[in-house]
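Quick one:
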Amino acid sequence: MDRFERQYILPGFGKEAQHKLEQAKVLVIGAGGLGCPVLLYLAAAGVGTIGIVDGDVVSLSNLNRQVLFGEGDLGLYKAETAAHFLKAKYHDIKINCIPEFITTQNIKAIFSKYDLIIDGSDNFPTRYLVNDACVLMGKPLVFGAVYQNEGQVAILNGNGQNSINYRDIFPDPPTAYEIPNCNETGVLGVLPGIIGTLQAAETIKYLTGYGETLVDKMLFYNLLSHQAYTMELSKNQDSKKGIPSSMEALEATDYAVVCGDGDSIDWEEAFALLNKFPGGTLVDVREADEFPKLKGFKYQSVPLDLIDEKHQEWLNSELILLFCQSGVRSLKAVKMLEKHFPGKKIHSISGGIEAPDSPIYK
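Output:
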């Protein structure tokens, strides 16, 4: 018996649609709360080639929603662990593992190998970078996002040059500290499971032409009330102004700065400042159970929710540098400390542990 029999006996689907899935090449950005259900269902459905790009490692706090991982995977790369799981389960599909974060420098080479992009990221610099690259390279983008008890799904750039893109909906990026991610606000694991599964469903429908898709539409879902509605999206005449004119221009764009990360510096600048100001302090604002840990450097660990309580510890520090997993929480910590220490040199390290120049890669 064919393992896809229940799919191709569906009226309107058939073996032709199954063949389209087998020929498809799909890239999933992020093997997190959204990416895990996306990967599970695309692999189970028989998508022929699946790429997984994620430079993060598994932490204990991930396990309530990132269902490809268990306690034995703590500290391991998510992309590699997810790829190993899927390869063991489905030997007839090709899984490409890319244990890196998507950046302006690698995005063109990675995207060029795939027909469709699925965004499971959780920060605005990545979302805008992915959107802009999809527009410039003509790639359809299956978008998903969650915030507390609500989620959204849409297919962007899925209808040629006149398609809706992310900047049509949100032309101006919020600053990183204006809208928190699930590390700060919390999330029930089932919500990204639902939204990620919907992303997988829309991907299958788009690739095969089966049913009505969310091209140029956005689905809104509320977990607490189970209310859901779909909104038709419209073009914003100013949306193209924020998109770089070419991939070369995109490579020269600093998306951390574009998304309001103005108080940030990179790791190289951070260590140069620490050498210049020996009385400076390096602070990790992640939770204690988050990985990977920095080795070979002296730093303090103070979770974000304790920054106000502990701020007196840095009264005599001439410089305070803060980092987290992606640079979001550390920016919030900068704003909190600036209220206590106006005029003091306080910076967030852009991209945090996930930054391409992070010392964990050296």
